[in-house]
Amino acid sequence: MDHLFRQRRISVPKRTSELVALVAVSCTLFLFLHTRDLSTQLRRMQGKLNDDVTAFNHLTDRAATDRTEHAFASAQEYKEALEAIRRHTGAERSKPQRTLEAEPEESHQEIDQEYLDELLVPEPWELNNTARAGMELLFFNRVPKVGSQTFMELLRRLAIRNQFGFHRDAVQRVETIRLAPADQQVLVNLVAAHTPPSSFIKHVCYTNFTRFGYPSPIYVNVVRDPVERVISWYYYVRAPWYYVERKRAFPDLPLPDPAWLKKDFETCVLSGDRECRYIEGETHEGIGDHRRQTLFFCGHEPQCTPFNSVEALQRAKRVVEQQYAVVGVLEDMNSTLLALENYIPRFFSGALQLYWEGLNTFNRINRNSFKPPVSEAVKQIVRANFTREIEFYEFCKQRLHMQLRALRDPAITPPTTRTARRRRAQRIFRRP
User: Fold this and answer.
1) Sorted alphabetically, which keywords does the UniProt record give (predicted)?
2) CATH number reported for the structural domain that contains residue 318 in this entry
3) Percent over 70 (pLDDT), the chain
4) Residues 58, 203, 290, 401: which is the catalytic one?
């Protein structure tokens, strides 16, 4: 019987077998095409992600480098940057881990923005140090020649509008921005004595209030292109009205040498004058040394004083990341005021409207009509010695734009970073 069953064959019509074969081939082809499409979309998505990862390049301490522009962050660098932000806020968000591979050959198709934001951009509270302040007191330790007079006037008007105290330090004969510990204690006592909500404004380095037994205030500041800022300072201290004002305040002040007053910036740089050499590692105290923008964020420690140093750069970055609610950028007033309004609304509500309504008045504040133009060639010579000061400036811009992106407001479009624009251009030129 078994032998009979083994010998028996079931005949299948030829057309049925051909149909089965056709269905199998069709399924195989469909799966192949679908897999290829998914692979292409994944490569494009990874390319877009690698572009957006650039915004995190400056949010962690990096190894010393003389470059002002960096290559794209790797997946590991992005992961470390995001973890650093969440560590500093004392919070961890559970989110599935995704790995990013090397940059794809092409990445031209737009990816769903909501998905990218969810994947890459932190929540606003993760970048908001305002909530971590221990008292409702705004401390603007203003950097010179970054439009701080304009911001001070804006803050004075906002104090009336938003009903908070407005206080500024008195004009000093010799303004010292680095203080000894005893003088830091005096400053902390003075600032903390104001009834909240209040604001206090002073040219001074970042001061750690908790070190002296007081809660931290809400720190804000503004930065500017370091080379443009040092040129502005150079002519500011030579302006005729500058010495008229100081003579009125301090009649016994001696007048400067006329030859020094007449010396222009280009001649100073090209002749190798000591005032315009900007030597790395050099320390020069006093009212005349306003080259180091990082000094106002680094602090009062001796390690913060050498010009263009790696340690001062890294300390300044860390303080901005951990202690400052907002660090604005003079060249991008819209982004600066939007961030201030959204991250410190108690003090800056209505700041954008107030600024544009009084633009004519604000533009005339502290404007130096005696400053001549400086050639781009001379600026490039100076930039070569400002590498880490420039890196700090770029870091502050990246952080400001990341804060705006975190708001996820479709009406806010932060400027594309220079590094991202360069990378996209490289891909376009490589396109076959």
Assistant:
1) Glycoprotein, Golgi apparatus, Membrane, Signal-anchor, Transferase, Transmembrane, Transmembrane helix
2) 3.40.50.300
3) 64
4) 203
